[in-house]
Amino acid sequence: MSKVLPQVVIIGRPNVGKSTLFNRLVGRKLALVDDQPGVTRDRRIGDVSLARMRFQIIDTAGWEDEDEATLPGRMRNQTEASLVGAQGALFVIDSRAGLTPLDEEIGRWLRAQKVPVVLVVNKVEGRSGQDGIIESYSLGLGEPVAISAEHGEGMADLFEALQPIVEGWDAPDMAEPAEDADPAAPLQLAIVGRPNAGKSTLINRLLGEDRLLTGPEAGITRDSIAVDWQWQDRTAGLTRAVKLIDTAGMRKKAKVDDKLEKLSVADARRAVDFAEVVVLLLDATRGLEVQDLKIASMVIDEGRALIIAINKWDVAEDASGLFNGIREALEEGLAQLRGVPLVAVSALTGKGTDQLMAAAFKVREDWSRRVSTALLNRWFDDAMEANPPPAPGGKRIKLRYITQVGTRPPRFVIFGTRLSELPTSYERYLVNGIRRELGFGAVPVRLSLRSPKNPFAND
C-alpha cells in the first residue's frame, strides 16, 4: 500500500507573488512569473520535499471580484474548486500594498472553509513591508508568516507553520497496481496547436471535468499545465496512466510581440521537449494553415511522436472532403509527415477521443521500438539488393552494416566507406524502408553515417 500526498493550495489576489512562492517551494521555475497581474490562469501542481515532509503545492489564478461569466470570474471558480479535497491553504497577501478590500473578501471566504489556513505576508524585504504584517492580524486568521518568496527569506518559518497540517494529516492508503495491470510508465501526452483550437476543452473532455479554464477568448492558457489521468482502454480491458499536458496557443512568430506571450510559447516548446507523444490540434472550421505545418515540423525536429487531430468535427462542413484534403495537404507540405496518424475529434461531444488515445499509445510503442541486429541487417541486405547504393565517379559506396543505437526516437548508425558521397535521396530511401518494413510507422527516425577512422580503409 502507498500513501497519497497531502495538498496545499496557494490563494490570493493577483500579483501578490503566488507563482514566485510556488517556484520557490518546488525548487524549480515551473510557473510563469511576470510583473503584470493575471499571468496564472489554471491550477498548477508541484511536489515539495523537505527533510521528511512531503506534500503537493497547488498554484492558482489570482482571485478577482468579477462576474462568473467573465474570464476573471471563471478563473476565480477554478481557484475555489482547487480547495475541494485539499488539506490546507496558504493565503498570500502583499505587505507593500497593505491590506485591500479584496484581501478582506478572500479572508472572509477562507474563514468559512473547513481547511486550515496559513496567512503568508509576502514581499517583506525592507522597511516598506512592516506595516502590512501588522495590518494582516485584522484578517482573523492567526499569526502571519512573513516571507520574501523572491529572495527565499522566511521559508523555515513557513515550513514550521505547514508541518502540523502536512504531517498531521492521516493519508488514506492507495492500492498498488494489480499484477496484471499495464506496467508501462504514464504516457506523456502534450496537446499543441494554434490559439483557440480547443486544447483545454479537449483535455477537460478527456478528464470528464472542467479542470482547465476555457472560453471563447483566444490565448486563455499561458502556462503548460500537466494533469495526471487514467484512461479506460475498453478495447484492451486496461486502465492506462496518462500525463496530459495543456499548452499555450502558438501563433506565427511575427505576430508574437507581447513579452508574456513569448514566455508562454517558450513554455509550450519546453512541454514538447518533455513529451513522448504530441497531439497537434487543428480547427476544422479553419482547416490546415501554414502555422500548423510549422508546429508539426518543430515537433518532428524535436524527435517526438506526432498525431494530428482535427477538432470541432461536430460542426465541420463536408467532413469527408475536409479529412481527405488535410491528409493530402500534409503529405504535400512536409515529406516527414507522410503517414502521421490523422484523427477526427470533437472536444465538445467526445467523438473520436478513444481513437485518439489508442493512436497515442500505438505511436509511443513505435517510438520506443527496438529491432534485433540480425533482423535489422537482413532488412538492410534486402534493401541494398533491391536498390544498390550509387557509384559516383565509378567508385562504389560500400555500406557494411547497420545497427540501432537508441530509441525514443529510434536512432540508427550505418557503417561503411565513402559515406560522405552518399546522396540524401538514398538516405531517405533507407529511412522510409525502416519505417515501412520494420514497424516504426510515421515516428521520427534518426539515421547517421559513420566511416572507419583509418584513412586507407576506402575499398
TrEMBL record:
Q: Where is the EngA-type G domain?
A: 6-170, 187-368
The protein's UniProt keywords, in alphabetical order, are: GTP-binding, Nucleotide-binding, Repeat, Ribosome biogenesis
Name the CDD domains for this protein: EngA1, EngA2
Question: Which PROSITE patterns does UniProt cross-reference here?
Answer: G_ENGA
> Please, one GO biological process term?
ribosome biogenesis
Which residues take part in binding GTP 1? 12-19, 59-63, 122-125
The yes or no answer to whether the keyword GTP-binding is present is yes
Q: InterPro entries in the record, alphabetically?
A: G_ENGA, GTP-bd, GTPase_Der, KH_dom-like, KH_dom-like_a/b, P-loop_NTPase, Small_GTP-bd
Lineage, top-rank taxon, reads Bacteria
Q: Which Pfam families match?
A: KH_dom-like, MMR_HSR1
Annotated positions binding GTP 2: 193-200, 246-250, 311-314
**Key word Transmembrane present in the record?**
no
> Which GO molecular function, any one, fits this protein according to its record?
GTP binding
Known role: GTPase that plays an essential role in the late steps of ribosome biogenesis.
Family affiliation: Belongs to the TRAFAC class TrmE-Era-EngA-EngB-Septin-like GTPase superfamily. EngA (Der) GTPase family.
Q: Subunit structure, briefly?
A: Associates with the 50S ribosomal subunit.
Q: What is this protein called?
A: GTPase Der
Source organism (scientific name): Croceibacterium mercuriale
